[in-house]
Write a structure and sequence with these properties.
Length: 345
């Protein structure tokens, strides 16, 4: 009677492999592959799962073993229907894990050689960061801008969170300098917690990582240098907004609450149109062909934003469509986006 392909597909797609798949869409994809591959056509001479991967026609067990030995030891991402860049991402993540493990197991004691000690390196770094750290915000400027405006309310919330980060960083760096000098004064109640935070800050700053107390109050980043540079850039955007007026293009990934920014824009559009209801307003977007530097004026309605990236796809700026990723290019920056509100009622 031949092979019962329905049975084969069920055993593979629902039992042997399908029993380990928890996502409904993944199981649907697995069953789709089973229907495409497991049928009478798979024994055709032209059939192959991928270039170089086909069912061998052998007469002895030894010939099958020889064929298996000729298969690549490492399969390329294309075999699984993935882009070649997937292998770059895998190798990068693996390398990062290895380097993190090596860093974590290094001894944390002070250096005893002729080189600079850990404390001296961190002390110099703390002084440099304190010198570049921006000053506290002047809240009186917000009152003059109009504290009932939707965008200004959002700006106040962002400034409050940024001020918290700046204060934590400044206090940690000052305490760290005093601790290295041996002149810090602590109460018994705060001694244990402060010592733990300072030890964490010393170890992480020496390894170019972000101290935990900073990360909890701010955002994630790959290294301490990138994190501190982003702090300065975020502060620059907020300070420019306060002292020089509303930016023509907003760096949306530089906000703590990007969704709140879009909500404030939607509220602003609703107030500008008296016959609009807030619960009927939707946010739409249009990807422009201009870059940030080419924008010379704010839009008549809505906002211009930048700072968004594509992963797993490319962007054809001329045709304004998604395209396949370019080999060895993992991330592609989108041009400026025009975000605006429309009435859906």
């Amino acid at each position: 009677q031949g092979i019962s392909w329905n049975t084969v597909r069920y055993m593979i797609g629902e039992v042997q492999y399908g029993g380990r798949v928890t996502d409904d869409y993944d199981k649907r994809l697995l069953n789709c592959f089973a229907r495409v591959w497991f049928n009478e056509n798979m024994f055709d001479s032209t059939f192959c799962f991928y270039t170089g991967y086909k069912i061998p026609v052998c007469k002895t067990l030894e010939q099958y073993f020889e064929y298996i030995q000729l298969l690549p030891a490492m399969d390329s991402p294309e075999v699984f229907g993935l882009h070649p860049n997937a292998d770059i991402t895998y190798q990068r993540n693996t390398s990062a894990d290895v380097l993190d493990t090596i860093t974590n197991i290094q001894p944390k004691e002070s250096g005893t050689g002729s080189g600079e000690t850990r404390e001296a390196v961190v002390y110099r770094l703390a002084e440099d960061m304190l010198e570049k750290l921006p000053p506290d915000y002047v809240k009186s400027r917000l009152v003059k801008m109009g504290h009932l405006n939707s965008m200004n309310i959002f700006l106040r919330q962002e400034i409050d969170r940024m001020q918290k980060v700046i204060t934590i960083v400044r206090n940690t760096l000052n305490d760290l300098r005093l601790a290295i000098e041996g002149t810090i004064v602590m109460s018994e109640a705060s001694k244990a917690n402060l010592l733990q935070n300072l030890r964490d800050a010393l170890d992480n700053m020496y390894d170019a990582r972000i101290p935990q107390v900073w990360r909890r109050a701010s955002w994630d980043s790959s290294t301490l240098g990138f994190w501190f540079t982003e702090l300065l850039e975020r502060n620059a955007q907020l300070s420019t907004w306060i002292f020089e007026g509303r930016p023509k293009v907003f760096w949306i990934t530089g906000f703590f609450n990007p969704q709140g920014f879009l909500t404030a824009m939607k509220q602003e559009a609703t107030r500008a149109h008296k016959d609009w209801a807030l619960d009927k307003v939707e946010i739409h977007n249009e990807v422009l062909k201009q870059t940030r530097e080419e924008i010379t004026a704010s839009p008549s309605e809505g906002v211009y934003i930048y700072g968004l990236y594509l992963e797993g796809a490319g962007w054809d700026r001329r045709r304004s469509i998604l395209v396949e990723s370019t080999p060895k290019v993992l991330f592609v920056q989108l041009p400026v986006l025009h975000m605006f509100a429309v009435d859906s009622s």
